[in-house]
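Data availability (excerpt). The following record was deposited with the supplementary files.
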Amino acid sequence: MREVQAIDDFLKRKDLMSSKYIFVIALGATLIGCGGGAPEVNSTNCSGAGMQAVLPTFDKEAERQAFIDKCQSLAGK
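Predicted structure:
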């Protein structure tokens, strides 16, 4: 009887472990999917240090210039 209980406990722990792995994989995929896209125009990204971090992420010069223009219009408000 004790052996049956030990096997049941092992199977329950194995199911719990597989659930943890599924959760970690799903969380990783979700976080990877959150990346990308254009940076948000806000006071943090439009500051000096923010601009240094954000501007290299643009692939095209037109996108970079559009971001700079939006930051300048934000500063003018």
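Summary of structural features: Residues 38-77 form one domain.
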